[in-house]
Amino acid sequence: MTDTRDMRREMPLGLAQRGYTGVIQHLSAKDSGSALSDIELESRLIELGFVEGARVEVLHEGLVGRDPIAVRVDNITIAVRRREAMAVIVA
Amino acid sequence: MELPLLHVALVGTPNSGKTSLFNALTGSRQKVANYPGVTVERKEGFFVTPLGRQISVVDLPGTYSLRGRSPDEEITRDFVLGKASGEILPDLVLCVADSTNLRLTIRLLLELKRTGRPMILVLNMFDIASRRGISVDVDRLAKELGMPVVTSIAVRKGGTADLLALTDQISAKLAAEPSENSWRALSVSELRATQREADRIIADCVSLPARPDTLTSRIDAVVLHPVGGLIVLAAILFVMFQAVFAWAQPLMELLQSGFDALGEFVHAALPAGLLQSFLQNGVISGVGSVIVFLPQIIIIFLFILLLEDFGYMARAAFLMDRIMGGAGLHGRAFIPLLSSFACAIPGIMATRVIDNKRDRLTTILIAPLMTCSARIPVYTLIISAFIPAKDVWGFINLQGLVMFGLYAAGITSALVVSFLIKFFMLRDYAPAPFMLELPDYKVPRLKSIAIGIYTRAKMFLQRAGTTIFSMMVLIWFLASFPQPPAGTTEPAIDFSLAAIIGKAIAPLLAPVGFNWQIAVALIPGMAAREVAVAALGTVYAIEGGKEAAEQIGQALATKWSLATALSMLAWYIFAPQCASTLAVIRRETGSWTWMAVTFSYMLVLAYAASLLTYNVAVALGAG
Fold this sequence. Notes:
The complex is a heterodimer of chains A (91) and B (623). Chain A is of the alpha+beta class and 91 residues long. Chain A has 2 helices and 6 strands; from the N terminus they run E-E-H-E-E-E-H-E.
C-alpha cells in the first residue's frame, strides 16, 4: 500500500492541516487518548471507511482549536475530532 | 386466495434515504410508537404490492454495523435476528443504499447476509448517481452479492415500481428457502476483511466518475468555513426564530380565539355549574393552552426536517461541536436546545437526533432552562408593571435589558447545570466521540418532510389528548373544589384545594417574598407557565383573564413590592411548573425518576434564585 513515488513520512491524521492529502497506512488506536476503547475506536473508524489504502484529504477545520476536522475518505466526507483522528496513520 | 401479511424490515446506513423510501412506500399509513423499555422510535407502515399482497414494513434505525453500540443500533440488530422483544423475525430484509455512496452499505450488507434472512439490495437515489456519472453494473452486483438488486428513486412517483414488482416475485418463493443464521459480532480483523471485500466488489461493479460532487464542495467551502460558517448558521437561526415567533403568532392567536370561542359557547350553552366549569376551564382552556403551541411545533419541525434532509444538520453539529463541548454538550445538542427557546416540548422531542444516551439525557435535563415562549407573558407582565421604560446609557431600553438579562440567565444556568451534571453525576462517563458522516447535499423531499411533520404533530396531539389532558383535569379539580359557599363575593378559587395548598405552602415561600396569592397562582400555573398570569388575575379578583393583562399589571404594581416582582422574575427563569414538559420528559426518558430529578433540581434553583434576588433587593431598599 505504500506510495512508492512519494516517500512521505508517516504521521497521525489528527495532526494534519487543512489541505493535507494522503493515503491511510494503518490504524493505531492505542494511546490515542479517545474515550473509546482501542477496539471500539478501531471498529468505528473502519465502519466509517478509514481502512488501509483509502485516500484522505482534510477539507475543513473547526474554529476552536481547529477542531473537529472534516475529512474526505475516498468518496465520502466524515467529521471527526482530532483526538480520534490520531489513531489514523497517514502518509 | 388471501395471502398472509409479509413482514419486511428496512435496514441501511444513516443518510441512505431509508426514511424517504419508507415514506414513498407507505405514504401516511404509518404507526409511530416506542420499542418496549427503550426510547427508540418504532416506525411501522403498510402497503400493498401490485399483486395484492399486504406488506408491513418497519423502518429500523440507521446503522453502520450490527455491533449494536447504541440502543438504536441494538434494536436494528435484534430485530433482524428476530430477538427484539415482541417482534417476529422479518420475512424479508430490504437493505437500502445511497447509490452515490455504496462503500459503507456494501460492508453492512455483507455482515447482514450472515443472518441468513432473505434480502434485497435497494440502490436508492439512483437518479442522482446517474446524473453524477456513477454507473453500476446491477446484474454483476447481484451475482457478486448473491441477492437480488433493484434500483429505486424514492422521491419520484413510480420510482419504487421495480422494487414492488421484485417484492412480489420474491415473496412468492420465500417459504422455499429456509435459512441459517451464522451471524456473530465481527472482530476488528473480520471487519477490515469485510470492508476489503466490499471495496473489491465495488471496484468490479461500479465505475466512479473522475469529478466528485462539486456542488457539495462549493457549498461546504462557505458553510464549513470556520468564521463564515458560523455567520451562515447564525443567519439560519435568525430566520428560524423569526418564523417561530412571527409566522406562528397569527395561527396561535387564531387557535386561542377558537378555544376561547368554544369556551364561550359552552359557557352560554350550559347552565352555570360544575359541568360548565369543567368543560370550559378544565377541558377546553386546559387542553387549548397546550394545543396553541402546535403552530410553533410544526414550524420548528419544518425547519429541523428541511435542514436535516438538505444535509445541513450534520454541518451545524460540526460547527458547534467544540463550542458546545466546553459545557460538556455534544454538537448535536445544539438544535434541540435552540428549539427549546420556542417550547421545551419540541426541543426535548428533537433530542432524538443525539444517538448517545447520556448526552441525550443531559440535553433533556437542561432544555427546560432555555427561556420558552410560555414564560414571555409572565415576563412582560411583570416587567411592564415594575420596570420603568427609561433608557440607560442613553440608548438601551431598561425593560429590554431586563428581558435580555432573563434570557442570558437561562442560557448561563443551562450551561452551568450541564457542566455540573457531567462533573458530578456522569463523572465515570467519557464523552461520546464526535464521528459523523457529512452527507452530500440533496434537494429536500417535500412529501417526505410533510409526512415527518404530520407524524410529529400527531404525536404531540395524542399526548395533549392523554397525559396533558389528565393533568389539566387534576389542576382544574384542585382549583375548583371544594365549591365556594353560596352568596359569597370572594373569588371561587379562594375556597378551593388550590388555595388550601397555596396557603399551606405560603410560609415556605415567604422567605422569597411570595404572598399566598402567588402561591395559589403557581398551582394552575402548573398547566402551562403563562396560565399563572390568568390565575393571578383570578385570585386578585379581576375579571377578563388574559385579555386584561394590563389591568393585572396595574393591580400587581400596587400590591407587590419591587423585591417581590424581581423575585418572581428570578423564579420564572427556572420555574419547574409545566406539566406538559414534565410529561414529555417522562415519555422521552422512559422514566419517572428523570422527570422527578428535573422537577426537583429546577425547583431548588428557582427557590435559591428567588431567595437571593429577594433578599438582595430588600437589602437595597426595594422591599
